[in-house]
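Sample 1 of the test manifest.
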Amino acid sequence: MTNPPEQSGRSDELLSVNISRLFNALLPLSEPQSLYRSGSFIMDSQGENGIWLLTEGRIVIRRRIDGLILASQQAPIMLGMAEFFLPTGQNFYDIEAVSPCTTHVIKKTDFMTVVNRDQLWESVAVVEAYIIQVMSQRDRLITSRSATDMVWGHLELLQQEPEEIRQRISAAQYIRDRTGLSRSTVMDTLARLKRQGAIQLQRGHLVCICID
Amino acid sequence: MTNPPEQSGRSDELLSVNISRLFNALLPLSEPQSLYRSGSFIMDSQGENGIWLLTEGRIVIRRRIDGLILASQQAPIMLGMAEFFLPTGQNFYDIEAVSPCTTHVIKKTDFMTVVNRDQLWESVAVVEAYIIQVMSQRDRLITSRSATDMVWGHLELLQQEPEEIRQRISAAQYIRDRTGLSRSTVMDTLARLKRQGAIQLQRGHLVCICID
């Protein structure tokens, strides 16, 4: 499940260069909004909503219909593009700050003006490609053939989260928030992996994965 | 799970207009390749692979690592954009023709030249948005809280497939190919839905869903 480091490094850099280009051009026309830890906002295709630029902090994206967490993302990142370019009126997400966040919103018309003016469409295509890649990775995780594979895949994700997140949330909760697996399945699998020496947990929080 | 028809109609039209624009500009520079029913080709980021344009027929996209079917798509559609714009080297898919297909491949450099020349970036953004929407829909289906919801969601998908597909593949196989649910879970759930009068099956093939 882990990315080959070299390839992943190259694609991280490509994403980061393109997000910088977009942020530099879009931020002067966007409106800052603070997002507090417990706050949430809604992405949808109604009204004048545009693209959300997260310039600071870390968020999780929850699907509103069932509260499932689809992704964790660290600034800088842009959100809301799929509904922006191809509105379905079906996708409602709540964005929750997991650390103090600053977001900026840019209106649809301003976004189009700036992207056309500064010829930033290729950067837009790269950011959308990133979203597709994140969703492909999630798809691999949640359609693993066994609960053990699903738990293991999410432990790998958890290990990539900042220390602060790993201390705040138990491994079991992290996995259940993202998979819909039952409490007992998750607890039994974690207990087995711990017994086998594959992971170290401390009061239910992930310390480390012990297998290469 | 079903799209509100009005909204869905509008977004279908938007997609179709933008794919036509891209195909008109890209096809003259692309190379035709026939894809037979049992054939498959590979999308990856190696070598000179570019974007695949499906101009005729119907395909399924299988994830190579486990053979799971991620999507069924009808021409006209473009494939391979996420790895094209943001190569991860991680995503390998087999594309299987389920009806006689014609595909065209356009090289990376030609694609960039044409899209820049004809200012087709917004169309590219719309097609990527469509891929994100398809994946969001799939995510909702496969993370349903119960096996019954997963089976039901896939029966709704199956009902939208052409008649020919529904006659060729049994409902159970269709669902198992896409979810990784066990044979017994799928069979038990289908049997229960049939007993409840919620679906009609004929020799295992879906005739119709009987609930509004």
